[in-house]
Amino acid sequence: MGSYMEKAAHDWTDDSIRIIATPSMAAKSTYFYVQEVGHFRTLPTYFTERQSLNSFLIVYTLAGTGYLHYQGVTHELSRNQVFFIDCQEYQHYRTDKHELWELVWVHFNGSNSRGYFEQFMKNGSPVLTLDESSTIPQILSQLLEVNLQKDIRTEPLSSKYLVDLLTEMIIMTSPQEADGSFLPAHIQRIVSDLDKRFQEKISLDELANQHAISKYHLLREYKKYTGYTPNEYVIHRRITYAKELLTYSDLTIGEIASLSGMDNVSHFIHLFKQRVEMTPLAYRKKWQGIH
């Protein structure tokens, strides 16, 4: 990304809060950790321009108007909007001079921060608009409060709140039906069908015909809502069922493969090892020894 660059006008009110944290070695090796956290009431010249900072940034707009320029796009930010960016990339954010921006924010890193960010960005935009019931503002306030009163609990609690925050950010990018349910009715029917018939051989064409949907639309929608293609979902269900039989029965590996819907034992062992990171026999020895 090149060398670190930052330009800024630190133009905020006297009652604004900015806390700089120095994470311990334990936090860096184990937790999500706060680098900076704060609550700003900006003044007219406030801005930050930056790149190549090893940090992730989440900013929530409490009031007023701000502007974020990121990945070549400028976003206008208003109340109840939040953005999530990778500070290695170029970013420029500033207040509107007439509708002064009030924001609460956290710079953080550690654990699998990048994985969460990449998952979030599958949404296609760094900016989300929250509804009034969102817990994100409350979590950011908790992060600020716990870092104001530093003690032995600060780092583990900060990590907990960051996990909560990142989880909410991911959930907020997930599609939702008008009735509040997550899965559309037609996808729920297909999921239920595959749950009942995962031991059978079902082609994508057959599944699409049975549910009166094009196979290309089925593939796209099923992946969008479940995280799996239909074939991946069936394999997942078969492996899960095989794990149950390996733990709670004395059936042979061949019998378990067949009951799970896979007649080729070698293929079953390959798929199992690929997804569970051990052979079916090793899994049985491990888990039957526990019970």
UniProtKB/TrEMBL annotation:
<dbReference type="InterPro" id="IPR037923">
    <property type="entry name" value="HTH-like"/>
</dbReference>
<dbReference type="InterPro" id="IPR009057">
    <property type="entry name" value="Homeodomain-like_sf"/>
</dbReference>
<keyword id="KW-0238">DNA-binding</keyword>
<keyword id="KW-0804">Transcription</keyword>
<dbReference type="GO" id="GO:0043565">
    <property type="term" value="F:sequence-specific DNA binding"/>
</dbReference>
<feature type="domain" description="HTH araC/xylS-type">
    <location>
        <begin position="188"/>
        <end position="286"/>
    </location>
</feature>
<dbReference type="GO" id="GO:0003700">
    <property type="term" value="F:DNA-binding transcription factor activity"/>
</dbReference>
<keyword id="KW-0805">Transcription regulation</keyword>
<dbReference type="InterPro" id="IPR018060">
    <property type="entry name" value="HTH_AraC"/>
</dbReference>
<dbReference type="Pfam" id="PF12833">
    <property type="entry name" value="HTH_18"/>
</dbReference>
<dbReference type="InterPro" id="IPR018062">
    <property type="entry name" value="HTH_AraC-typ_CS"/>
</dbReference>
<protein>
    <submittedName>
        <fullName>Transcriptional regulator, AraC family</fullName>
    </submittedName>
</protein>
<dbReference type="InterPro" id="IPR003313">
    <property type="entry name" value="AraC-bd"/>
</dbReference>
<dbReference type="Pfam" id="PF02311">
    <property type="entry name" value="AraC_binding"/>
</dbReference>
